[in-house]
Amino acid sequence: MDSTQLATITDADVLRGIVLEQLAAIAEREQSIAHFTTEIARRDHTIAWKSAEIERLTAEIARLRRVQFAARSEKMDPDQRALFDETMAADLAAVETQLQALQAPDPTSPAATPAPASRPAPRRAPLPAELPRVETRHEPASCTCAQCGAALVAIGEHVSEKLDCKPLEFFVRRAVYPQYACRTCETVTAAPVAPAIIDRGIAAPGLLAQVAVSKYLDHLPLYRQEAIYARSGMTLGRTTLAEWIGAIGSRPAAAGRCAAA
């Protein structure tokens, strides 16, 4: 309403109503301005914190890379170097992941600036074709169109493959020796029972091989193996594991059978 129209109004109640409407509009505008001011201050604080954190992580990545490349010139035991390289690679990956998360634009911001162009991801070798595939299909909740109700028609698939593994899995190897009798000769025939590596022991050659390889090749002490097997639901005390290792070591033939397993 302009000043000319306002001058033609002589009713006090109408003028009072117009004033109240304008006061309400001004109060609402001031409230919006205060909200935007608070939001701008919050985003400025977030941007300042992210900038400082990005600078810190960038410096940390540079430091880790200097340590990584400097260590390669030093003489070190191959096993120690492998452990050092694995730890350094894990630390670098963790810091780079945090840096990428900070550099990503804020999805809640209406005017989020585009993220800087990241370096191209390294091309990874395809997963081995001989590995078994466990397929899980994720079908839509409904096979009809949500807008018109028509039946949906399959036009393709998006397939994503990720490498996975199962925890150590125990099973019972059950050996059955059927016995057959000859009624005429009154004799019983059965296949000879294979000699056990450990007399009256419960461990099959495969389990004995697992314990021995984990101890001597993977450098896993028996107390750690005990914890690993417990997580898989099998309680095997370290004393029992030690007895198995001793029995294998004292019988070369048994060690050969474990290696064949």
From TrEMBL:
Domain Transposase IS66 zinc-finger binding: residue ranges: 143-186
Domain Transposase TnpC homeodomain: 56-135
Name of the featured protein: Transposase, IS66
Residue segments, region Disordered: 103-126
Composition bias type Low complexity, residue spans: 104-116
Domain Transposase IS66 central: 200-249
Organism placement in taxonomy: unclassified sequences, metagenomes, ecological metagenomes
InterPro entries given in the database record: Transposase-related, Transposase_IS66_central, Transposase_TnpC_homeodom, Znf_dom_IS66
